[in-house]
Amino acid sequence: MKLNHIDHLIVKYLNHSINKDELDELNSLLEQPENKEIFKDYAKINYSIDYKLRNYRAENVKKYLQDRIRKDNNVFSRGRFLRVSKYAAILVLAVGTLLIFQKDNAIQTTSEPFHKEHKITLEMENGRSVILQEEATQDIISEKGEVIGKQIKQGIQFKDAELSELVYNTLKVPYGKKFQVTLSDGTKVFLNSGSSMKFPVKFIKGANRTVFLTGEAFFEVAKNKDPFIVSANNAKIRALGTAFNVSAYPGEKDVSTVLVEGSVGIYRYKEQFSKEHSTVLEPDHMAIWNKEKKEVIVKVVDVEMYTAWVSGKMIFRNTPFKIIRKKLERHYNIQIINNNRELDEKVYNAVFDVETIREVMQTLDESFSIKYTIENNKIIIE
Questions:
Q1: CB-based contact 128:143 (threshold 8 Å)
Q2: 270 contact partners, CB below 8 Å, separation of at least 6
Q3: CB within 8 A of 353, min separation 6: which ones?
Q4: Which of 47, 183, 208, 276 gives the lowest tally of CB atoms within 10 Å of its CB?
């Protein structure tokens, strides 16, 4: 089956293999109404097939396509039917080839270094995942074929769509990456490496604006009478319009909240917000929620230390090496094996921004005599 040029570009877009020049060309072609219709047909069928392929079986997909084509034949004219059927066949060929390739190469993935999932993804309500290429510009399309947002390089902005119920997406950012999302209410969220956030495509007026965080994020909350709530590791952080940082990585015993401006309240996951049962923060303060002891400690901090990552910096001041090591692993997507236990408890001062991991380790060695070797994606400290 020979694809027209527009077909070829759309298929490459849908299976995430399109390059920047092709994406620019596709955007230009989609300005024509007839091409928009072609794209819409592709999108609807691709998303439906993609949902079925989550538990892929060839016979199931074949039966699904036959049912879909039969249904389209009853609804559309013959010309429309032939066009939709052609798209379905093209997409099955493209997706089928991809599945065969993945199956044939499954064994090789075990040798990939450390965190092999190195792509930023947006997971839709139905479980379908979209890979977000950092230099791409693309529309974010729902399973219904509707445009709900737009990605422009390293950020997504969601529209204030007309929805009567909560529909959630989950943004996942791997080690070595960062990403920004502007929610439908205008709230800006900067996600750090190794983090994910589940959030509604649109908030419901009159209800809490709740998002669910794993990892670390900086929030610039849009002012609104509806409270904005971050749920993270059995703790909740409540705000109306403010700027703050939350760190709640898996495996860490504490959830820390650093307030830049405004006011936030920290309280237990299962409780309702109240002044009596919450810890209210002032700017330039940090609240540390201990998940095991279920208690909060508040202290004055240098805000820049905890928010500099948003602009690409890492600032360490009297920081134990075990914390530095974890931050370096996330920032550079590298595994650090420390065989010097005494080193973990020592504190250091350093600032890094544009350095490579080799330059960082060289600086640490020169300043603090840290001996190490680098093997592939691992740093081994003697």
A1: yes
A2: none
A3: 312, 313, 314
A4: 276
Total number of domains in the chain: 3
- DSSP for residue 302: -
Tokens of 158: 């969601």
Which residues share a beta bridge with 265?
238, 280
Residue 18, φ and ψ in degrees, nearest 5: -80, 145
Contact 84, 77 (CB under 8 A): no
Name the residue type at position 371: K
- The C-alpha atoms of residue 150 and residue 162 are separated, in whole angstroms, by 16
What is the per-residue pLDDT across 159-178, written as a single tens digit (0 to 9) for each?
666 666 788 889 999 999 99
* Alpha carbons 199 and 180: distance in angstroms, whole number: 13
Distance CA 40, CA 86 (A): 14
Residue 172 and residue 41 share a domain: no
The domain boundary residue, chosen from 111, 130, 161: 111
**Spatial separation of the C-alpha atoms in residues 320 and 328, rounded to whole Å:** 13
253 and 129 fall within a common domain: yes
CATH of the domain at 323: 3.55.50.30
The whole-model pTM stands at 0.66
Average pLDDT, the chain: 77
CATH number at residue 197: 2.60.120.1440
Joined tokens for residue 27: 């955007």
- Residue 229: count other Cβ atoms within 10 Å of its Cβ: 19
Specify the pairing of strand 179-182 against strand 188-191. Answer: antiparallel
- DSSP three-state, residue 44: helix
Sequence length of the chain is 382
* Closest residue by Cα to residue 280 from 238, 308, 247: 238
